[in-house]
Design a protein that fits this description.
The protein has 274 residues and is α/β, with parallel strands linked by helices. The protein has eight helices and eight strands. Strands 1, 2, 3, 6, 7 and 8 form a six-stranded parallel beta sheet that branches. The protein has a two-stranded parallel sheet with strand order 4-5.
Length: 274
């Protein structure tokens, strides 16, 4: 009997992990920052109609606690979770990560995690850098706090004002420094959107960053509703698979990191000069 138990134990520990799904072309991640009210009133019904996944990155910064005309309530955020969307962490005070404040990362993230717990939402495992401000010194703390994937913007490869970026390249981009292929702007046309999503091929994944639809408090990152509807319709008509950031774990192993997070960034910057 003991031999059978030992044999079974050896079989179990030797069994390989579940195979990752292949990264097919047209794989897109939708992300929405800053707890904007239109995420619930405008974005939510559109995504539900198309059965798209998405991550909503929550912060209590700006006028979140007092201005409920422009920011969601925690009850609405909880409803997004119940709808099947991912609730991600964007820090309590919309505070970027730098050398000066990396000691405050735990306090900032745990404040959002505590609110999630109070409203029946799982602990956050995805993070978006507020203001797209990041510092590699924060990687260890983010990981310790349970963050699996963290999204940045299109910088430093592109200037912030352009809203341009590169698609995520698994194995080359650090899982805690995933680039946005596009960071929507109010003057974006379909051509700008296509530039971002057309990168989702050859093993690359296009991560899109949106703010409010509309975003009255931050007009420089506002997306008009009619444009957003056109973008989502394009994804649907062209058979894009649209997921939340947490769903990347179905396709990539977040524990595998490149030797240097800077290598791919420098390669891209050089390619833009050529």
């Amino acid at each position: 009997m003991r031999c059978w138990i030992v044999a079974l134990f050896v079989l179990l520990i030797a069994r390989p992990a579940l195979a990752l799904e292949p990264i097919l072309d047209r794989l897109v991640v939708l992300t929405f920052d800053d707890s904007v009210k239109s995420h619930f009133t405008v974005v939510r019904p559109i995504l539900l109609d198309y059965e798209f996944g998405a991550t909503f990155f929550i912060t209590e910064g700006f006028d979140f606690k007092t201005n409920k005309d422009e920011y969601m309530t925690w009850e609405q955020i909880a409803q997004l979770h119940q709808d099947g969307f991912e609730i991600g962490n964007h820090t309590r005070d919309h505070q970027g990560i730098s050398e000066q404040n990396d000691s405050e990362v735990e306090e900032q993230l745990e404040a959002i995690n505590q609110q999630c717990e109070a409203h029946g939402i799982p602990r956050t495992t995805s993070f978006a850098y507020p203001g797209n401000q990041f510092h590699p010194d924060g990687f260890a703390e983010l990981s310790r706090l349970g963050i699996t994937f963290a999204r940045r913007g299109g910088a430093p490869e592109f200037e912030y004002k352009e809203g341009k970026g590169f698609a995520y390249e698994p194995g080359k981009d650090h899982p805690l420094l995933l680039p946005s292929a596009g960071d929507a702007r109010p003057n974006w046309t379909m051509a700008d959107f296509l530039r971002a999503v057309s990168q989702a091929k050859d093993g690359r994944i296009a991560i899109l960053q949106f703010h409010g639809v509309p975003d009255n408090e931050h007009p420089w990152v506002h997306t008009p509703e009619d444009q957003f509807r056109a973008f989502m319709k394009y994804l649907s008509l062209n058979d894009y698979k649209v997921i939340a950031l947490r769903d990347l774990s179905r396709y990539v192993d977040p524990t595998k990191t490149p030797e240097s997070h800077e290598t791919i960034i420098e390669q891209r910057k050089q390619s833009l000069k050529e």
